[in-house]
């Protein structure tokens, strides 16, 4: 009987309190506010500039991360499958490193891509990425569809943008 009461108390405790990851996901379920600087220094992008009507992929990355480079190569080689969405690469690394990453991967040549700097950490603070790459997919209504941590299968990513 005592074990049963302990079990009920244990279950009640966890069912009555939302888990931290549930609270976190709720905080980013609608596209949160942040500001990114354009890597070429020509201006900035605010989350309010991300318009409804197109899916959006946000990739928090580090230029020297091998997994980030692999994901980037997969996305660039499958860009035709992702033309219907906007893709935002975001980094808190140095401007020089991010520019080199962008140029080497030809991101600056893609019309639906924005490469930005999180100089004020407004993006990082909202998402608290546990590592890189960290990918968030938002639908046409700016609602969170999926979060990927680490290397991601391109087919899964493409599928997420169609939800």
Query: What is the CATH architecture term?
Result: 3-Layer(aba) Sandwich
Mean pLDDT: 87
Spatial ordering of strands, largest sheet: 2-1-5-4-3-6-7
Give the helices and strands as they follow along the chain: HHEEEHEHEHEEH
Question: Low-confidence spans: pLDDT under 50, at least 5 residues?
Answer: 2-19
Q: What is the C-alpha radius of gyration, as a whole number of Å?
A: 18 Å
Helix share of residues?
Answer: 25-40%
User: For the record, what is the CATH homologous superfamily label?
Assistant: Glutaredoxin
Question: What summary fits the major beta sheet?
Answer: 7 strands, mixed
Described by the principal axes of the CA atoms, the overall outline is: globular
The total of helices stands at 6
Determine the N-to-C terminus distance. 48 Å
CATH C-level name: Alpha Beta
Note the beta-strand portion: 15-25%
**Number of strand elements:** 7
At CATH level 3, the topology is Glutaredoxin
Number of domains: 1
The helix/strand class is alpha/beta
Helix-strand blueprint:
Layout: H1 2-16, H2 20-27, E1 35-38, E2 44-46, E3 55-60, H3 66-77, E4 85-91, H4 95-104, E5 113-117, H5 122-127, E6 134-138, E7 144-149, H6 154-161
Parallel strand pairs: 3-4, 4-5
Antiparallel strand pairs: 1-2, 1-5, 3-6, 6-7
């Amino acid at each position: 009987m005592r074990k049963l009461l302990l079990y009920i108390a244990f279950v009640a405790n966890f069912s009555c309190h939302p888990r931290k990851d549930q609270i976190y996901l709720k905080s980013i379920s609608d596209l949160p506010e942040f500001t990114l600087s354009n890597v070429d220094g020509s201006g900035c992008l605010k989350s309010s500039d991300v318009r409804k009507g197109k899916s959006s992929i946000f990739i928090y990355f580090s230029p020297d991360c091998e997994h980030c480079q692999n994901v980037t190569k997969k996305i660039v080689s499958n860009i035709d499958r992702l033309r219907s969405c906007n893709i935002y690469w975001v980094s808190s690394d140095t401007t020089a490193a991010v520019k080199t990453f962008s140029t080497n991967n030809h991101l600056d040549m893609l019309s639906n891509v924005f490469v930005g700097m999180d100089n004020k950490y407004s993006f990082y603070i909202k998402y608290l990425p546990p590592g890189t790459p960290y990918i968030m997919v938002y639908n046409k209504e700016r609602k969170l569809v999926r979060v990927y941590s680490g290397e991601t299968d391109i087919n899964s990513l493409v599928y997420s943008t169609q939800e």
